[in-house]
């Protein structure tokens, strides 16, 4: 199974802070720290107003709204320097800034969502999980990661077609997200695998949340999509108790927790599927309706299955 990608945070421009040097609004008669048209600094108020507006438009297009607003205010102050009226942001310019802000937010949201299921995608999962592992030391909260796999999903595609398979994936995500605790989220890990990330939670509650999700999927009336359709899921639940200190490598900690969840998912599969496998006091157990089964030992090596 593919593991956590460490390069995502560096390669995703939507996650980086504004690191470019931002020109500061100058006083009247001083030049802004960018090149003016024709290489000359404007010295008159009209030229400075135009320069401020150009800088504001550039910053707004980058999503740097606070700096853009500062330059707009400087332009307005210059425009009304010799007037008694209170400067107001022109309506057309305000609408343009609002439009750019909305487009930026939509692009950001699309970049972290799975196009089929609208759950979070692998990029967001990798970044957020590393952040949560880092935050554990300061929050002193537990962190649970549940790796979810649809049982016999290949047979669903083979018997009913890929369009039905897509509808099944979409509905499973809706069922997984029902009743999730605050700050918990669902992300698509790949194919028919999903991850539930449960921050700020204790071990017993994490098991209960995972088992409730499994039961919702089993009880759902799948025959409404197509007669004869049945869907169940298996879950591997890895829980990390509160940390006493910050981890030296949060990315490694996040990766290891995913690997642990993957190993427990293998146990759930080998123990008959439609089950939640987790560790308690060093022993692997099955939750809920599967608790009467014997849990098959975890494999030494983790791989695809």
What does this structure look like?
There is one protein chain. With 305 residues, this protein is of the alpha+beta class. It folds into two domains: 8-14 and 21-111, no CATH class; 122-290, Reverse transcriptase/Diguanylate cyclase domain (Alpha-Beta Plaits, 2-Layer Sandwich). The protein contains nine helices and six strands. The chain has a six-stranded mixed β-sheet, sandwiched between helices. A hairpin with a 2-residue loop joins strand 5 and strand 6. Helix 5 (122-139) crosses helix 9 (250-270) and helix 6 (153-160) packs across helix 7 (162-177). The longest helix is centred in the first third of the chain and has 21 residues, at 91-111.
Characterize this entry briefly.
With 305 residues, this protein is α+β, with helices and mostly antiparallel strands. It has nine helices and six strands; from the N terminus they run αααααβααββαβαββ.
Q: What structural keywords apply?
A:
single chain; 305 residues; Alpha-Beta Plaits; 2 domains; 12% strand
